[in-house]
Design goal:
The complex is a heterodimer of chains A (495) and B (320).
Chain A: E1 5-14, E2 17-27, E3 32-37, H1 43-50, E4 58-63, E5 66-67, H2 73-79, E6 81-84, H3 96-100, E7 107-108, E8 111-112, H4 114-127, H5 144-157, E9 162-166, H6 174-189, E10 193-197, H7 201-207, E11 210-215, E12 218-224, H8 230-238, E13 247-250, E14 261-268, E15 272-279, E16 284-289, H9 295-302, E17 310-315, E18 318-319, H10 324-329, E19 332-335, H11 339-342, H12 349-354, H13 364-378, H14 394-403, E20 412-416, H15 424-439, E21 443-448, H16 451-457, E22 460-465, E23 468-473, E24 476-479, H17 480-494
Parallel strand pairs in A: 3-10, 3-11, 6-9, 9-10, 16-21, 16-22, 19-20, 20-21
Antiparallel strand pairs in A: 1-2, 1-4, 4-5, 7-8, 11-12, 13-24, 14-15, 14-17, 17-18, 22-23
Chain B: H1 2-34, H2 41-66, H3 74-90, H4 97-120, H5 124-143, H6 153-160, E1 162-163, E2 166-167, H7 168-186, H8 188-198, H9 200-205, H10 210-236, H11 247-258, H12 269-288, H13 296-315
Antiparallel strand pairs in B: 1-2
Helix pairs in contact in B: 1-12, 1-13, 2-7, 2-10, 2-11, 2-12, 3-4, 3-5, 3-10, 4-5, 4-10, 6-10, 7-8, 8-10, 11-12, 11-13
The chains are: A alpha/beta (495), B mainly alpha (320).
The structure holds adenosine-5'-triphosphate (ATP) and magnesium ion.
Chain lengths: 495, 320
């Protein structure tokens, strides 16, 4: 059988960096082909070539047996190659339906046929398993998971034959992920080819027919999914072993001194209600919840990005009101769940890192020196603080977002999905940075919708659902199932 | 489209940075060849003199554009400041208070439209449009439509005097640009201006009080506009209720021609200087080569439009 798409000896350099060093790659119609590899291995770059986003490269590409050279994404789309980018390109101001039909709204005569557009959008979302999304509402009203969904729906409805998904589930809850994986399988059984990039090896082994591993711009292997397992994949990806966290053994810790962060009856309508929480120096508290459970909003509110309607926030006993500036001054650090909102992609790393500290750290030389130090600490690759953030791979951008807060150790570190989009190795690195911060006395609130992340690092675990804390684990064995259950059980009951 | 942008960004940045410089050089060569009087020291002095007021105003506009806002009231603010200074002089307010009052009035009105944008969320093109009506209205009200000839002596000196053979006006313009440059380049506030324009949400997350930054750049724009007005009446020899109204397009145009992005975060005073020179050389050169006088505005307009298209093409990717 002839592959739908074939790459032969594809190479790509960015200035001095060789991102792809001669890749051979084939995708067949009807298969789910997963692509895994460390941050910066070249996954996104390779897919951007497939999707016409990067037109200048060396090597050959053939689609349905015909050699071709794509000049832009539109050409790719016309041929039936659609890509869902790692950084979403949705328009939050437009309605969900408009986002799905962006650029090809159904029309009647010359005007947009809104009724039909809404109806079709509704039908598609239902088919994808999201009947509750109101397609007339602005996409911005919905959490990131739905943004991702809109992108997927857009590709699916465009009639693409080859759909490339770059980390589609990094913002999805386990339930949403499951639905997406089902959808991916369904699309493949309809004869579509799917290239699926993910750092979640579990998903990858579950959904893929074949898996290609990239390391450092080279293809290491292409394996049948049934004949391999996670540890082999990790070994191939990293060239070494890594640990997995399906469960954790929590040990109740003796808490020293007074809590640094106290929340009492904190309430923000439509987000969370009556939250009581105390964080002690030196501990990592995992706050787990599904997307929409209010855990991200809680962190955001503590940092001063939104006003609580009721309740109190105290830092070291002192009430905290006012915005991020005051929060930072009181020793609170915050990483938002979406790196795009927190970073200046068009500005060099050092300016991204130094911005909160300019009152004592101003001047390119000093900023560069400080940035060099902290980016080394987080293992930024390449370690060049003068480069624009936008030129780094997704995972490395995330490291920049964290590095900023290492300049001055915070009292409280609110980290929302600090490991989103990171490979297993980099995840370990970031979590050990959190651990080092905790050991130095910082209280870390690790806010995540990835059970593995929470289980890998937390000393104590809280679960949020529907805006409330529904479970707390301080000692004994905790498993992924327990967390997901606690988070989803409540959700189902009240849904 | 983020990926596409990051790939082309270096090329695009280069092109965006250098295109105005090439344009300027091309214009200079062109007019140098086609006009004998163009390449004289005296004519270069003329050009500088012609763009001096625009330069003072353009300094503030640069700040505003860098935060991705716009100020459509600057020319009316200049007119108003000139009128206030002359009115107060006629009313025998001791010098230099008329000038101080004029600058304060302009700054205050700038703060109002800035605060409306920063704290109430009224788009700046709208708040400054409304403010331009207020400023214009005040000018008319104070003058009752007449021309005021009592000018502060300092205005006259700065507007039409010379020192060591150099026009004070040019010196004031150069100093304004210099101060603007130093603030943007070498102060924290300057960095906040760039970062707020590049990504307001991210700036806020890093503890930057982006609302205050926006309000302040509008004050700065109103202040430099006021300064242009106060000095400008000295050059004109009188204050009229519409003295500088026509400068709006040129002032914003010069900043954009220089390559400062309409989407914020990219550009600066050096770019504005190039933009000013392009506009100055173009205006001056068209006079020299005696094109149809009625075509001058058309040609300038076409070039400005081309610059806008260019600006959007290369900077506008941010929006996609
Ligand atoms: N526009 C660019 N300019 C310069 N270098 C780039 C650019 N895009 C990517 N690179 C570099 O190419 C390499 C591969 O990046 P790529 O984005 O393909 O990684 P990835 O495998 O998708 O990683 P991640 O899992 O972190 O998303 C990295 O070293 C990155 O820094
Ligand atoms: Mg990637």
């Amino acid at each position: 059988m002839e592959p739908l798409l074939r790459l032969t000896q594809v190479k790509k350099r960015f200035g001095g960096i060789e991102a792809l060093k001669g890749i051979d790659f084939e995708v067949f119609a009807g298969e789910v082909h997963a692509l895994v590899g460390e941050n910066g291995a070249g996954k996104s770059t390779m897919m951007k070539i497939l999707a016409g986003v990067i037109p200048d490269y060396e090597g050959e590409m053939a689609y349905r047996g015909r050699p071709l050279r794509l000049k832009n994404p539109k050409e790719a789309l016309d041929l039936g190659i659609a890509m869902i980018h790692q950084e979403l390109s949705v328009m939050p101001e437009l309605s969900v339906a408009e986002n799905i039909f962006l650029g090809r709204q159904p029309t009647r005569g010359r005007v947009v046929d809104w009724r039909r557009m809404f109806a079709e959008a509704r039908r598609i979302l239902e088919a994808l398993g999201y009947p509750h999304v109101e397609v007339e509402r602005p996409l911005g009203d919905y959490p990131l998971g739905v943004h991702q969904l809109a992108e997927i729906a857009r590709a699916v409805t465009s009639g693409a034959e080859l759909i490339i998904m770059d980390e589609p589930t990094s913002a999805l809850s386990p339930m949403e992920t499951e639905r997406l994986l089902e959808l991916v399988r369904r699309l493949a059984s309809q004869g579509k080819a799917i290239v699926y990039i993910s750092h979640f090896l579990e998903e990858v082994t579950a959904v893929a027919d074949r898996i290609t591993v990239l390391r450092d711009g080279r293809k290491v292997a292409t394996l049948r999914a049934g004949e391999t397992d996670k540890s082999e994949l990790v070994r191939l990806m990293l060239g070494k072993e890594a640990r997995f966290f399906e469960r954790a053994e929590l040990v109740a810790r003796a808490r020293e001194g007074r809590p640094v962060l106290e929340l009492s009856a904190l309430t923000r309508p439509r987000a969370f209600e009556g939250i009581d929480l105390a964080l002690y120096p030196g501990e990592i508290v995992g706050l787990y919840g599904l997307i929409g459970s209010g855990h991200f909003e809680l962190a955001e509110t503590v940092f001063g990005l939104a006003r609580p309607a009721a309740g109190q926030i105290r830092v070291a006993g002192k009430p905290l009101r006012g915005g991020p500036r005051q929060a930072i001054r009181e020793g609170i650090a915050y990483v938002p769940p979406s790196r795009r909102t927190g970073l200046f992609l068009e500005k060099p790393v050092y300016q991204n890192v130094s911005l909160p500290w300019l009152d004592r750290l101003f001047g390119p030389a000093r900023e560069l020196a400080a940035a060099r130090e902290v980016t080394q600490e987080v293992g930024l690759r390449p370690p060049d603080p003068a480069r624009n953030v936008g030129a780094f791979s997704g995972g490395n951008q995330q490291k920049v977002a964290i590095a900023r807060w290492l300049i001055e150790p915070p009292k409280v570190f609110l980290a929302s999905e600090p490991t989103r989009g990171m490979d297993v190795g980099a995840k370990d690195e970031v979590l050990s940075i959190l651990r080092r911060m905790a050991d130095a006395g910082t209280a870390v609130l690790l806010v995540s919708s990835e059970p593995e992340t929470i289980l890998a690092a937390a000393d104590r675990i809280l679960v949020m659902a529907k805006g409330r804390i529904v479970a707390e684990y301080t000692s004994g064995e905790v498993t992924k199932e327990m967390l997901v259950h606690a988070a989803a059980g409540e959700l189902r009951k009240s849904a | 489209m983020a990926e596409k942008r990051s790939r082309t960004s270096r090329l695009a940045e280069r092109a965006r940075e250098l295109a105005p410089v090439w344009t300027l050089l091309a214009l200079i060569v062109f007019f140098g060849v086609y006009s004998e009087s163009f390449f004289t020291l005296e004519n270069f002095g003329n050009i500088l003199n012609q763009v001096a007021l625009l330069a003072i105003m353009g300094t503030g506009i640069t700040f505003v554009l860098l935060t991705a806002q716009i100020d459509l009231s600057v020319s009316y603010m200049a007119t108003l400041a000139g009128v206030v200074a002359a009115y107060a002089t006629a009313g025998h307010l001791p010098q230099p208070w008329p000038i101080v009052v004029a600058l304060l009035v302009a700054s205050f009105l700038g703060w109002i439209s800035g605060a409306a944008t920063a704290y109430l969320g009224i788009p700046s093109f709208m708040s400054t449009l409304a403010m331009s009506l207020i400023a214009s209205g005040l000018s008319l009200y104070l003058t009752r439509g007449r021309i005021l000839f009592d000018l502060p002596p300092l205005s006259k000196t700065l507007g039409s005097g010379r020192i060591f053979g150099v026009k004070w006006l040019v010196i004031v313009a150069a100093l304004t640009l210099l101060v603007g440059h130093l603030v943007l380049r070498y102060t924290r506030f300057g960095r906040y201006v760039y970062m707020t324009g590049a990504n307001p949400k991210a700036a806020e997350l890093a503890g930057v009080n982006t609302r205050r930054v926006v309000a302040w750049v509008m004050v700065i724009a109103a202040f430099t506009a006021g300064l242009a007005g106060v000095v400008g009446i000295g050059r004109l020899g009188s204050a009229t209720p519409t003295a500088f109204d026509g400068m709006l397009i040129d002032a914003i145009g010069a900043v954009v021609l220089g390559g400062t992005s309409l989407f914020g975060g990219v550009g600066g005073i050096p770019q504005t200087v190039v933009g000013l020179l392009i506009l100055g050389v173009l205006r001056n050169g068209l006079d020299q080569v005696s094109v149809n006088i009625y075509a001058k505005t058309l040609i300038t307009g076409i070039i400005l439009f081309a610059a806008l298209v260019f600006n959007i093409l290369f900077a506008g990717k941010k929006e996609s």
